[in-house]
Amino acid sequence: MHDALGPLSVTPVTHSVPMAKNHRSDRSPTDAASRPAPGTVLDRLASAPGRASRITHTEHLPPREGRHAVWPDRIRAEVVAAVQAKGIEHPWAHQARAAEHALDGDSVVVATGTASGKSLAYLVPVLSGLLDGSEAPNGRGATALYLAPTKALAADQCRSVKEISHPLGTSIRPAVYDGDTPVEEREWIRQYANYVLTNPDMLHRGILPSHPRWSSFLKALKYVVIDECHTYRGVFGSHVAQVLRRLRRLCARYGSSPVFLLASATAAEPSVAASRLTGVPVVEVADDASPRGELVFALWEPPLTELHGEKGAPVRRTATAETADLLTDLAVQGVRSVAFVRSRRGAELISVIAQERLSEVDRSLARRVAAYRGGYLPEERRALERALHSGELLGLAATTALELGIDVSGLDAVVIAGYPGTRASLWQQAGRAGRSGEGALAVLVARDDPLDTYLVHHPEALFDQPVESTVLDPDNPYVLAPHLCAAAAEIPLTDDDLPLFGPAAEDLLPQLEAAKLLRRRTKSWHWTRRERAADLTDIRGQGGRPVQVVEAGTGRLLGTVDAGAAHTTVHEGAVHLHQGRTYLVRELDLDDSVALVQEANPPYATVARDTTAISVLETDIEVPWGAGRLCYGSVEVTNQVVSFLRRKLITGEVLGETKLDLPPRTLRTRAVWWTVTEDQLDAARINPEILGGALHAAEHASIGMLPLFATCDRWDIGGVSIPLHPDTLLPTVFVYDGHPGGAGFAERAFHTARSWLTATHEAIASCECDAGCPSCIQSPKCGNGNDPLHKRGAVRLLTELLREAPPVRPSI
Description:
- This protein has 812 residues and is an alpha/beta fold.
- It has 26 helices and 31 strands.
- The strands form six sheets. Strands 1, 26, 27, 28, 29, 30 and 31 form a seven-stranded antiparallel beta sheet that branches. It has a seven-stranded mixed beta sheet with strand order 2-10-17-16-13-15-14, sandwiched between helices. Strands 5-6-4-7-8-3-9 form a seven-stranded parallel beta sheet, sandwiched between helices.
- The model is unreliable at 4-33 (pLDDT under 50).
- Residues 99-285 form the Helicase ATP-binding domain.
- Residues 326-478 form the Helicase C-terminal domain.
- Residues 1-66 are annotated as: Disordered.
- This is DEAD/DEAH box helicase.
- GO terms for molecular function: 3'-5' DNA helicase activity; ATP binding; nucleic acid binding.
């Protein structure tokens, strides 16, 4: 089988929490004493009939007082005065420590909680350094580069820099340089801006290939700020790591050696991840000295409905509907809240449902809830933020556009519709409430899938575990090769450059020469083609030319779909969602990478079905698990979409199947796999009739649980289970990275295999369904239509496999 990519117990607690004096409060004049304690808010949410039993766990995090320090005496007095003018008298201890490292020339990562003042920790030394540089005799003075994962965050930070540096006059000249920057402004920015805010994509495609035009900026580059660096993981993080190595190489040629200042949500071993990302030693500052109010964190499981889905499986009420109810109730209580949703469509849907229900209570309340997501104009976003600050707006249904550091304070509650994929993101989202040192409520509403169900019944996996390590692999040859070409196009590569790009670089160069991408002349490698080398890769790791989604009647470009996802999402007959509208795909032209769609409103969704074959290319590591084996290595996956199903929107009932004629695709990647022997199958009472279903069910659940152990989404990985695999000659389950060359997820799975598969076993065994459901073994992306599956067989199989499993120490 294969796949493509407890009851409530709350005692209200009220604490007197010292107000944060480090940052001004942007709250409305509403008296803090008039707002109910978070425990009281939760009690009210749970008071409706049938609600209390939906809360499976409540965690109380006590308040914490802040610890102040003083800015290092090397910080310019004008900068300290400008900060104090914003109402910030003294820094928190971690801010002062980070600034000290920056002044000493140490690259440093600040990995502290949401609203702990990370921005100020790097901004103060940067501003001080720019002021020092402005007095240099070379005219331009020192420069700094700021990188954010999104354009919206860079623009938001630029506004903050302008506000705080206003008293410093023209010595600080910040500017945003990205794809939206008008052409007439770009030359001024290259020549005169000394604090340039951009994103890794623009650095890769725009700045580095044009480095001669940026020579004066790069020559004077003193600091590189990398904000929200925990988002640089997997393939995207691996690409950004190589972009930063190209930047360091060019800086060295121009005579500079910038200090890297990184800001991260709380993460495991932040200095290790930051060093892997930048390629330089990084000191970590992770002792959060900022104050925190009491946080009440509830885990919430929607109830089962009377509906039945695929194979008659029970269906839970959706996290979307449940979250809309909670957002409605919070608004009625006058509690300022944000509901985080994974998709833009989900954010819009929750806001619409909440508005409709609020209008039944009080028409004026309906106007006090809105959606907030990517794709809005900047002025629309700022208007929503201002309305939330002032109290005019009580609730937002938001995508992660609101998670990444954009300044929204004054919230009392956060509802999270579905586990966001990592503990780091979970705490980042929960931290958006209670930002002024006051109490806050956070509620995680479980979706109907194995990981969410497991977490709401195993709170220790969230509250007693450290946040994840950031997984990235800069040495992935599929990532490294195009960046070697880009580097050679910028300045010819020499042997002395190769250590900068990692140990795999030397072996790749002859392959690139054989492909006629590079040519060796004397002692250096040169880019040989007319086209831009930077266009060889999309650093977001999408793999190939994106497919343009075009409205057939008007020719209007609606958006794009990643090349790797096109076969399963925009095949002919597919239902395609875009900004809340529904379209049917009329034609997919793979040669021109265009999908023609027309607006429609079908009463069904579509799901692609595919076939997958996997072959082992090389086994890197193999360890015995009793008589079976656990392996990690390179594989080749051949996948072909062969048909699609039409399913009713609510129940998932299959209405029909349509054949497709699409070419097969191959993927060379990394995988973890495990085998079992005949003796193990006998011990587990697995006969040939149920073997396929038991393996398939274990594969599904293990894919669903892997994001708890590796920083990935289930859509980043795939799996194959085969009763007799030709390469192992045994029943085998594979889980592989869905990216060329791998992304580090399968490697992480190998090194945490005992814990990962133990959690998988528990997720299946503890589910209350009889034969399998979306909360345990059914998968929304199953290429076989979730057939066959055998829940009890999977439990027995994993029990036997784990009985003799040795502990495997993680290496990441």
